[in-house]
């Protein structure tokens, strides 16, 4: 009986943990969701006494400038993620599969943008970009976003390749596969979950950049964080809540879209390639 009760207790504990995580994640967003559909909401009312779509109507109006900011955020985050994958995968492989004498120094150099105070780094980048004509441009913002995001991608891929077995590639080459075929059919399927995880981190870090975008973009490259801070300073809680929902939803969508690579069959297949 004890053997039969243990799995039931384990399942209940698992469900309780999952429920606790969901509550902890969802509960803070409930007030924001209520604010976004309220006309006004004052203490001591527990719920808005009057509902309204005023905030959402303003959101889709041209005067709100939300759509250009949303497009900028998506484009910048996507391009930054793609560049990180192109640069971070080979760099992570070098650090994860080779035994370099100076690897500790290289890792410290990679982590330097995260260790050095951000405002110091931003000021230096701004001065350089002003001199070379990249200040106040979307290209400059994209290049600046590589600084806080590339370390995440490289370190994630380093961990992936540290457990990667290169013998599979050697076996494929011994059977006549070309380098491109080896990468597409052997390497990529094995490290794809790691690329998705790294890309997720990179996109979210780039998506939420405020000070870096403001300093390098000079206010001429509007993104959702910049617009959100502007709305928050206006004192209109309804509009701030609406934009907060818009700011959070794409991040949730990215997480949901990549969830199948983090668990289940894809993760299991990846494990076969790294054991």
Please, could you describe this protein's structure?
With 275 residues, this protein is mainly alpha-helical. The chain contains 13 helices and 2 strands; from the N terminus they run H-H-E-E-H-H-H-H-H-H-H-H-H-H-H. Strands 1-2 form a two-stranded antiparallel ribbon. Helix 4 crosses helix 9, helix 6 (118-132) runs parallel beside helix 10 and helix 7 (138-162) packs across helix 9. The two termini are 37 Å apart. Mean pLDDT is 80; it is low at 264-275.
What's a quick, concise take on this entry?
This protein has 13 helices and 2 strands; from the N terminus they run ααββααααααααααα.
In order across it, which strands form the biggest sheet?
Answer: 1-2
Radius of gyration: 23 Å
Taken as a percent bin, the fraction of beta residues is under 5%
Structural class: mainly alpha
Q: Can you lay out the helices and strands and say which pair or pack?
A:
Blueprint: H1 2-26, H2 29-36, E1 38-40, E2 50-51, H3 54-59, H4 66-97, H5 103-115, H6 118-132, H7 138-162, H8 167-174, H9 179-207, H10 211-217, H11 224-234, H12 237-262, H13 265-273
Antiparallel strand pairs: 1-2
Question: Key features?
Answer:
mainly alpha; disordered C terminus; 275 residues; 13 helices
